[in-house]
Design a protein that fits this description.
Blueprint lengths: L1 H16 L23 H24 L2 H4 L9 H11 L8 H22 L5 H6 L1 H19 L6 H10 L1 H6 L3 H19 L24 H8 L5
Helix pairs in contact: 2-4, 2-10, 4-10, 5-7, 5-8, 5-10, 7-8
């Protein structure tokens, strides 16, 4: 017991002797990266507007004015990315706006939406599919929600990505081609967010998973007493 207490005391003493950097942290002590200072509201509003405008304009420029996509009947923009713009440019510190959620959430939802819609497409008549689009859309969105939770890629706008595969005639008509379109759309949003959000802010907060700062675990009550009253031993 006394050996453990001694090791703890040495660790605390060593950390206290580390030099202090300009931001007040101990140099050489592993800590989570600090967030940049909070910007005034008008700065956040300005860059949110610029980011959403530029990001959505980029999507429509690529898909709405490229002969390659026009010939294949790809819509000028997938509507769910309007909601993604709110997160990726206006709420950039939110976990739901980080790259893993943006890329993974949309792609998983698109895959689920197309797969379920294709299964409903095996029904004998097209008329029967039209009658059951509500069921295919609801099942697609609900399944996508669960899979995003399981894979830790929850991105609320992606629920609409799954839904559109069933209920939107434009999206339904391109079939499996919906997957690369969604993947490219997410990539364009991410690239534009990396440029615009890092001018006076910082994005992303994390790429794969958030950094959890290392903390010292509290000692049991008996060990705390030994540290406070070493003479009693």
């Amino acid at each position: 017991m006394s050996t453990r207490v001694s090791h703890f005391q040495h660790a605390v003493t060593a950390a206290a002797l580390l030099p202090v950097s300009l931001d007040g942290s101990r140099i050489g002590l592993a800590t989570a990266p600090r967030l940049p200072p909070k910007q005034p509201d008008y700065i956040v509003w300005l860059w949110s507007f610029i980011g959403a405008f530029c990001g959505l304009s980029l999507l429509q420029a690529v898909f709405g004015h490229s002969h390659y996509f026009l010939e294949r009947g790809v819509p000028p923009i997938i509507a769910s990315y309007g909601a993604s713009a709110v997160l990726c440019y206006g709420a950039i510190d939110a976990p739901l706006a980080q790259p893993r959620a943006l890329m993974g959430g949309h792609f998983i939802s698109a895959l689920i939406g197309v797969c379920i819609t294709k299964l409903f497409g095996l029904l004998p008549t097209e008329h029967r599919l039209d009658q059951l689009r509500w069921l295919a859309g609801s099942l697609s969105a609900a399944t996508a929600v669960v899979l995003m939770q399981v894979t830790k890629t929850t991105h609320p706008p992606a629920g609409a990505t799954a839904l559109l595969a069933s209920v939107s005639p434009e999206v339904y008509s391109i079939g499996w081609y919906y997957l690369p379109v969604v993947l490219l759309s997410s990539t364009l949003v991410l690239v534009s967010a990396l440029f615009i959000n890092n001018i006076q802010r910082r994005y992303p907060v994390f790429w794969v998973q958030p950094v959890v700062p290392a903390v010292l675990k509290p000692l049991p009550v008996d060990e705390e007493k030994e540290i406070d009253n070493p003479a009693d031993k």
